[in-house]
Amino acid sequence: MSPRALIRTIRPHQWVKNVFVGAALVFARRLDSPHDLARTAGAFFAFCLLSGAVYAFNDVRDVEADRQHPTKKFRPIAAGELGERAALIWAGVLATIALAGCLALSPRLAIIAALYLAQNVAYSVKLKHVAFIDVGLIASGFLLRVLAGAAAIHVPASRWLLLCTGLLALFFGLGKRAHELSWAQRTGKSGATRAALAGYRIPVVRVLMAVLGILTCASYVAYTIAPRTVEAFGTDKLVYSAPFVAIGVVRFLFLALWYPKDDPPTEAMLKDPYFLADLVLAAGTVLYIIYR
Question: What is the model's pTM?
Fold first, then answer.
């Protein structure tokens, strides 16, 4: 067992998903508050540890299936670099530290973190094998991240923010399933994919992704022009960031439906220069308009 194997098992490159913890900080206009910034950073780090614990636990559960996959077989547990017992102990230590840190920040944050952990354990044990329930749980995980960020700085989570987050997370989750279906058809290795895929059909997933993509963009536009939003930010210019959201949605559709490589689209987008450029421009536009 090496420190490198321990670190790889908790997948730090996936921690970018936890930036949703900071959504409440940005849209509550608290980004310039050192106190709230520190509390959000603490919540973000706690969720990184929690997600790492979940990855370690999940890899123990899926070790045999991972050994049949072209890329997952190189994960430390599947490759024999980290023992299953050691991985479970590692997961327990990370989860304990994360929950204790959340409790120190806020009891409400600790409850949300515990719900996140329990949901992901249930997902790993059973529910990831149930079509559409699996994607719904992925989306609820992102909603819990947003709620955790709001709890950390003691502000209510915007309903618009939760709606846009939920739609976007469902969109991403279905994109991952579409990629897995395409990869299985292309390689003929359906046995190496997750059991829930038996309940999905590519034509149906494509239609649902298109609908969710449109709903995500429409909801974001509706949020930017809502009277309460205009009043809160003192401007109606936030709508100018909407084109970047639409471009990101279209680019993800390309990566998920027409780019069926071994990497899932949620990882491919973090390596895609066009998607990253759009993300930077979107974030810059939003921050400039809110905090100018």
Answer: 0.90
